[in-house]
Write a structure and sequence with these properties.
36% of the residues lie in helices and 28% in strands. By secondary structure, it is of the alpha/beta class. It has a domain at 4-90 and 163-238: Rossmann fold. The strands form 3 sheets. It has a 6-stranded mixed sheet with strand order 6-9-10-3-11-12, sandwiched between helices. Strands 2-1-4-5 form a 4-stranded antiparallel sheet, with helices on one face. α5 (146-160) packs parallel to α6 (176-193). The longest helix is centred in the C-terminal third of the chain and has 18 residues, at 176-193.
């Protein structure tokens, strides 16, 4: 079973400890949402799982599908089926989106890559995401609107077909219409693939579309409270500072 298991990791960057004795388990078919104040280590967690070398694990282990990830590079983790939709994807001036996407998929599929199959899927997913056809001929994320950038992340998700999908504030910068399109496509992929979802967000609106099975509140580099989707209403009403962290439903 393609489960993510994080066992008591501590993580530092630039000699500053961000995550402290952090543990979490995410299984296929589950939707875990992590919320919390800015600067608590939410993005650090996803970047660490994905293998960003800026983040150093000083203790603990991360396993995916019972394989230790600690010393694997990012490409190896991606090949295991792990995907990260980034909060602020970079622009690649001079590299067409079509070339980038094709290279991305062919590097994963290797000798099984089929160009005609790739083009067919690309067209299908562009239509589902309501992406302008000319977007694939433009440089990656260069001059893209906020909505186009986030839709492009979901397009990558579709093409890579991951079993663990991590999304870092995928809803930021989206207008109402784009938010619904992105949320609907995430939910469609989740239902069709049976993947595990790990989402970071600050906003309840995304969670009106995507109902989490687990909600976690992070503060100072660790989870301070876990529960079901009802915890979101508590956050809306009380804020993070006034939450009761003595009782903890998991």
């Amino acid at each position: 079973m393609n489960s993510l298991k994080i066992n008591n990791i501590s993580v530092k960057t630039e000699d500053k400890e961000i995550l402290k004795d952090f543990s979490l388990e995410v299984n296929p078919g589950e939707i875990h949402v992590i919320m919390g104040p800015n600067g608590t280590g939410k993005s650090t967690l996803l970047n660490t799982i994905m293998g960003d070398s800026s983040y150093v694990i000083t203790s603990g282990e991360i396993y995916y599908n019972d394989k230790l990830l600690n010393n694997l590079d990012t490409s190896d983790r991606a090949n295991l089926g792990i995907f990260l939709g980034m909060q602020k994807p970079i622009s690649l001036e001079g590299v067409s989106n079509a070339d980038f996407l094709r290279t991305m998929v062919s590097s994963k599929e290797k000798e099984n890559f089929n160009l005609m199959k790739f083009v067919k899927k690309l067209n299908e997913y562009q239509e589902k995401l309501k992406i302008n056809k000319d977007m694939v001929s433009r440089s990656v994320n260069t001059g893209f609107s906020g909505g186009e950038i986030k839709k492009n992340e979901i397009l990558e998700m579709y093409l890579l077909n991951p079993s663990l999908v991590m999304l870092d504030e995928i809803d930021s910068g989206l207008d109402v219409d784009s938010l619904k399109i992105v949320a609907d496509n995430i939910l469609d992929y989740y239902k069709e693939s049976g993947c595990a979802l790990l989402i970071i967000t600050h906003y309840q609106k995304l969670l009106d579309y995507i109902k989490p099975t687990h909600v976690h509140i992070m503060k100072n580099g660790k989870i301070i409270k876990s529960g079901d989707s009802s915890l979101i209403n508590d956050i809306e009403q009380l804020g993070y500072e006034n939450l009761d962290t003595e009782t903890n439903e998991i």
